[in-house]
Amino acid sequence: KLVRLVKAPADEAPAKKRLTLACAGLDYSLQNAIYQFNREHPGAAIEVIDYGSDADALTLLAADAGAGRLPDILCTAGLPLRGLIAKGYLLELTPLIEADMGFGALVEPLFEAMRVDGGLYEVTAGFSLGAVSAPAGLEGTKLDAAGLAELMAGLPEGLSLFERSLSPSGVFSLLFEPEEWIDWESGECRFDSAEFIALLEFAASYPQERADRADGHLLGSLSLGSMPESWLYEKAYFGGDMAVLDSPGGESGVFGLCPLRLGISSSCEDTKLAWDFVRRLLEPDFQAGSVSGAYLPSSAAALESLLDGAVEEGESGRCTVAYGGTS
Description:
- This protein is an alpha+beta fold and 327 residues long.
- It contains 13 helices and 13 strands.
- Strands 5, 6, 9, 10, 11 and 13 form a six-stranded mixed β-sheet that branches. A five-stranded mixed β-sheet has the order 2-1-3-12-4, covered by helices on one side. Strands 7-8 form a two-stranded antiparallel sheet.
- Strand 1 (17-23), helix 1 and strand 2 (44-50) form a beta-alpha-beta unit.
């Protein structure tokens, strides 16, 4: 195929609608999606503002976003989402999804959990699920500061509390749920409350554990990404009968979101065009190439296909996956 190129003055070139996308390091899958979008839309183009991938990149992106210097499309992973929402900088995406594929095409419980004050301001290509495994006798135990302190007091000699080594600051990070202590809309904090002080005191008193030197652990970690190995391993560790407890840290400890997450700024002048790109993260074909092997897809069709494949492997002698009450 021959292509004839003719040089012309810039002011004679066809005008294009331009969208800006800001990120701190451009993911390869997202880069390909941008190339494809630009090819498919000759009258439009996405221009990338990449803050880089060094230690300060995300801080600079967050600072610009927080000051209202927003692109049309924003990679939201690692950004202070609630703060941006409170300032009215992000577009609520529910109407766009409902007018397009509808939530029935997505893993709806995931997107319900991603809502902030009832609104959905970002979409994700994938997710993982996390929980805590424990001996069956601990079923129903609440893993807050008080519950963990009680477990520590009765911990059998030679056992570490957690499967992995944790410092006092690591324990604080595990238990700290920002939304419980910070009102993002008013800017008020509850850091002087008795509950928060109790959290600090427990974290400060936590021993510097070396889990690798212990004879075993009382609490394990369950992570269900694309494969169920951790579930099977933990169940075997506890003798085939284990309790599954809510992760410390509330919902943020349950859902792990894929870094491929996008939002649209409320100042975007062409939200229809911006959504035509953002929605690509939710397509099964995109998720098959970008999140497989690390995360569960957020598309209902892609997730169902993945689970069907896992069940087939189980029937052939490997494992089965429990999902939605069936296995």
